[in-house]
Recover the amino acids of this structure.
């Protein structure tokens, strides 16, 4: 494996040398473009409009945009020794697992400035790009507008099928953000959730609580697009999911609302595959997109909050929009921040148990 | 040399036995060499990757040889359940395809030639449409506020929306629709080859039409049906898209499980182990079916 790698690298080096030589001959001097990979749908489009296009223009760094970001594909590239991606968007939990597997490059914080970032929105291997919340959303026609009398408020309400009769949707094939709501519904205070989840009994308690609701879970969703579609089609009456997807569904005419009470506070981030072909320039581009002036534009396109505090100071977005963002100081105290340490320690075990429950 | 001289002495043309033999061998090798490109391709795209799959499934998380992935499959019930679901869904899909497909193929085989094209188009047209489009079309039709439920409730067929999708029912409807042509085409082919005079002969000998069908026509069409059913069954075993979209996360097949492992744990070894077990289980089931139903002809081409 190793010898193939070095052979491959030598070949690439030769290719790059000859490519460099031909560039010199033709008199063009420019850095190779940086390959930036994100997700499809409204999320990737929002990042293009708010972050990538302007950052590329202002810094003069040329980028190639690809979709289909995934940490498993990143690890596959790294392990097979043919890395073509420079920056990859990922969830915070995914980046922690990939880093543990040795698939990621360390972030150079002498280049990327995170001094104005919220705490816990960056790690050694990933720089936060936006803050989102895993919330419970419901059909407002059926259960009322958020905050109104009798509308659902807590995870206990999500589980209460007598007070709120109807169908539910919950996460499929992935345990991220699936166990915490169950424990809160079972009466565990938010600040003790991870403590309880760290014991075998606690994990079992969460699984049993989901088992209790399972007959009423009509659909298990496996993507953000599906959360939005289920609410738009009225296929289910209540669902867990990512706040920005529900806001965009509402913009499309869905009667859907959600609240930040007891929601899970989490963030997406940029990671760099180990052995990224254009590492140094990519690090510079990462420093550029992390500046507050770009993040300040993100709320116009999707309701995910900035990770850079300064973005709140300089954004021109209307007050109402700003106050609806998950990282806004008014909303943060209502939520439970996702604990990455718990995930790096317990994720595989929790996933096995959750899959076992789903297969029942 | 001695033999040759003798033949000349006998007045017969000389027979170069050794040379003939050599030429025969050379010809065999030449013919065999024609298949070399095919063998090389099969080796490159099937043997090596499958061998790699087997190898990976026995490599533990620390890079050592280990059975940990197989042990995990016993430890957690979700794996056994995924295999049961996979075989159940595949079996039911095959059954539905036979029940719908046999009369359809029979109908097609009886049609006059000028009509066959038109009706065959009805079978083939969906076959040419994207799998994903057809699957999502079923979702639009079958969901709670879908066309079928709304229509049926409007005309008073049922009062509350029926649960037609995001479960096993929806998965089977979608799978049967997608797999039907794989059964109908070989079956139609087999039926077309049945000599119609045989049916007349049977009735000449006093058989009722039903008896003639069951004793003459049906056994003759059986090899076509078995071939089609096997294609449907084996294709269904590895199916991912339709159960993922129409199963609503409740129909967890082996392919779903593999995706979950790869997407969330980047664990190639565990995913490979699942692939290996599915492959072995499939071969076992096919061999067993061959033994039980005497399908050697259809399966292995033996006469």
């Amino acid at each position: 494996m190793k010898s193939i790698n070095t052979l491959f690298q030598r070949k690439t080096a030769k290719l790059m040398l000859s490519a460099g030589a031909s560039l010199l001959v033709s008199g063009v001097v420019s850095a190779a473009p940086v390959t930036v990979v994100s997700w499809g749908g409204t999320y990737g489009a929002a990042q293009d409009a708010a972050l990538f296009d302007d950052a590329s223009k202002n810094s003069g760094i040329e980028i190639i945009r690809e979709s289909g970001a995934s940490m498993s594909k990143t690890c596959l590239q790294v392990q097979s020794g043919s890395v073509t991606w420079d920056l990859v968007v990922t969830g915070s939990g995914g980046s922690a697992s990939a880093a543990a597997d040795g698939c990621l490059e360390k972030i150079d914080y002498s280049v990327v400035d995170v001094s104005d970032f919220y705490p816990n929105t960056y790690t050694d291997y990933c720089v936060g790009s936006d803050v989102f919340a895993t919330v419970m959303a419901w059909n407002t026609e059926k259960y009322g507008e958020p905050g109104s009398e009798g509308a659902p408020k807590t995870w206990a309400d999500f589980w209460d099928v007598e007070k709120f009769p109807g169908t539910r949707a919950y996460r499929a094939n992935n345990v991220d953000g699936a166990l915490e709501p169950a424990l809160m519904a079972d009466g565990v205070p938010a600040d003790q959730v991870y403590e309880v989840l760290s014991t075998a009994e606690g994990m079992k308690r969460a699984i049993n609580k989901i088992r209790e609701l399972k007959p009423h879970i009509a659909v298990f969703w496996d993507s953000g697009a599906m959360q939005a579609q289920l609410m738009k089609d009225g296929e289910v009456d209540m669902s867990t999911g990512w706040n920005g997807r529900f806001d965009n569904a509402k913009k499309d005419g869905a009667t859907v609302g959600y609240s930040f009470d007891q929601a899970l506070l989490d963030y997406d981030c940029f990671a760099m595959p180990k052995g990224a072909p254009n590492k140094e320039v990519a690090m510079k581009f990462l420093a550029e997109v992390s500046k507050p002036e770009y993040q300040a534009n993100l709320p116009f396109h999707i309701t995910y909050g900035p990770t850079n505090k300064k973005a709140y100071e300089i954004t021109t977005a209307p007050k109402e929009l700003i106050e609806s963002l998950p990282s806004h100081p008014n909303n943060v105290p209502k939520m439970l921040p996702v604990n990455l340490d718990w995930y790096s320690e317990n994720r595989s075990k929790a996933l096995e148990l959750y899959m076992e429950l789903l297969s029942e | 040399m001695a033999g040759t001289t003798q033949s000349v002495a006998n007045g017969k043309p000389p027979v170069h036995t050794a040379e003939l033999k050599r030429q025969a061998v050379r010809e065999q090798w030449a013919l065999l060499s024609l298949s070399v490109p095919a063998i090389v391709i099969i080796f490159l795209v099937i043997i090596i990757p499958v061998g790699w799959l087997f190898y990976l499934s026995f490599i533990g998380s620390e890079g050592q040889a280990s059975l940990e992935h197989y042990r995990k499959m016993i430890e957690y019930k979700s794996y056994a359940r995924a295999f049961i679901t996979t075989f159940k869904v595949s079996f039911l899909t095959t059954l539905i395809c036979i029940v719908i497909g046999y009369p359809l193929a029979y109908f097609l085989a009886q049609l006059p030639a000028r009509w066959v094209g038109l009706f065959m188009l009805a079978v083939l047209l969906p076959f040419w449409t994207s799998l994903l489009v057809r699957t999502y079309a079923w979702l639009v039709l079958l969901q709670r506020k879908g066309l079928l439920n709304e229509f049926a409730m409007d005309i008073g067929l049922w009062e509350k929306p029926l649960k037609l999708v995001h479960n096993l029912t929806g998965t089977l409807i979608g799978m049967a629709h997608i797999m039907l042509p794989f059964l109908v085409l070989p079956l139609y082919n087999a039926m077309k080859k049945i000599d119609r005079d045989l049916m007349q002969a049977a009735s000449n000998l006093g058989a009722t039409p039903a008896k003639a069908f069951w004793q003459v026509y049906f056994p003759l069409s059986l090899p076509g049906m078995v071939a089609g059913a096997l294609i449907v069954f084996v294709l269904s075993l590895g199916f991912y898209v339709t159960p993922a979209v129409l199963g609503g996360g409740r129909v967890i097949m082996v392919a779903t499980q593999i995706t979950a492992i790869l997407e969330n744990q980047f664990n190639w070894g565990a995913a490979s182990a699942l692939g290996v077990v599915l492959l072995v289980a499939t071969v076992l089931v096919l061999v067993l079916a061959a033994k039980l139903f005497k399908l050697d002809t259809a399966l292995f081409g033996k006469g």
Remarks:
- The first strand of chain A starts at residue 34 and ends at 38.
- The beta strands of chain A are 34-38, 63-67, 87-91, 126-139, 168-171, 217-221, 238-242, 256-271, 336-337.
